[in-house]
Q: What sequence folds into this?
């Protein structure tokens, strides 16, 4: 019997893994460090994921946030592609409201030419930043209400599918799948990303894969997945729904170490939610922080949706999450302090979860 190979969308579980496992990385800038070191760590994370058997790794677009260095996903994906060999790479996501659809089509067409069969295009509706920064990106007042029209324009450039008479009929994204009527490469699969119901419904209607941000909108996970599945219509891309969720997960050699690092994630999120984003705090800073009663409650509630502990604890938590949601793939993210801790976590989880490199 021939060995099963990963599908561009439907990955193949390795060993005893219940579903394929992937990684979301934000190029986290730790306290006491800088963006250069953060990008070096993301490269090491990608190398680790590549050799450990993870299915894909995505980077997310954020702007004007001191603690996140992944402001340019396409540039970072190209770099990671040059340092990996089998791992699928993509955006989780590119914020369509921030960019011209033609520019995105050209960027990801270039990536698909550089790393054939390994590129994903994940799209989000929100700008991923404040309105002033979003306006600086596009030099116009951005609006998520334009998403449907811009999505249609993007697919038109990617597929060369503008109808006769369309003003962009003779404009081509180069490199791209269609140039002078000759198919030059397969375009990257498009994923719709969301933290609410809008993208879930649209992904279902289009018959596309859907990724939900469970790591910061856990209460909406099950309703969004139900909406996606209920509205799903088979397409040339998928004959049945394919859903993935991103979950915060961190493993360490000891439970105490895992808990110390998880607190850094909680404090960082507290600062973001209270309008004070900054560098990822260290475990010592998280322990020394003077929490009010409301802040302590926020941290406890936030960490309730994070899977952390020793490797077997994390694997058990992830397996339970898959069972509760019925997802086809799981993407984990661990934006904790310190590059070595993040790399070690991926290694521990891969071994415990049953991945094979």
A:
């Amino acid at each position: 019997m021939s060995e099963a190979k990963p599908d561009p969308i439907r990955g193949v579980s390795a060993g005893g893994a219940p579903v394929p496992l992937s990684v979301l990385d934000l190029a986290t800038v730790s306290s006491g460090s800088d963006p250069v070191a953060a990008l070096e760590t993301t490269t090491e994370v990608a190398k680790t994921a590549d050799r450990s058997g993870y299915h894909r790794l995505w980077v997310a677009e954020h702007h004007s946030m001191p603690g996140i260095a992944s402001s340019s996903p396409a540039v970072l994906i190209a770099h990671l592609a040059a340092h990996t060999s089998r791992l699928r790479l993509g955006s989780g996501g590119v914020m369509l409201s921030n960019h011209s659809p033609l520019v995105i089509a050209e960027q990801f067409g270039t990536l698909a030419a550089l790393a054939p069969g390994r590129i994903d295009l994940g799209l989000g509706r929100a700008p991923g930043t404040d309105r002033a920064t979003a306006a600086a990106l596009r030099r116009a007042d951005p609006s998520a209400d334009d998403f449907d029209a811009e999505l249609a324009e993007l697919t038109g450039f990617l597929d060369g599918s503008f109808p006769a008479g369309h003003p962009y009929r003779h404009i081509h994204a180069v490199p791209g799948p269609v140039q002078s009527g000759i198919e030059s490469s397969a375009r990257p699969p498009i994923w719709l990303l969301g933290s609410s119901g809008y993208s879930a419904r649209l992904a279902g209607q289009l018959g596309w894969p859907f990724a939900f941000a469970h790591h910061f909108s856990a209460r909406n996970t099950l309703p969004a997945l139900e909406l996606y599945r209920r509205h799903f219509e088979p397409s040339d891309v998928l004959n049945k729904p394919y859903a993935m969720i991103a979950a915060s997960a961190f493993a360490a050699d000891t439970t105490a170490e895992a808990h110390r690092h998880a607190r850094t994630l909680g404090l960082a999120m507290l600062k973001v939610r209270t309008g004070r984003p900054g560098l990822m705090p260290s475990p010592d800073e998280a322990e020394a922080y003077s929490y009010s009663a409301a802040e302590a409650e926020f941290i406890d509630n936030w960490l309730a949706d994070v899977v952390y502990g020793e490797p077997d604890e994390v694997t058990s938590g992830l397996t339970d999450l898959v069972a509760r949601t019925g997802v086809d793939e799981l993407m984990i993210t661990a934006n904790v302090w310190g590059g070595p801790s993040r790399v070690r976590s991926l290694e521990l989880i891969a071994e415990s979860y049953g991945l094979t490199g």
About this structure: The mean pLDDT is 90.
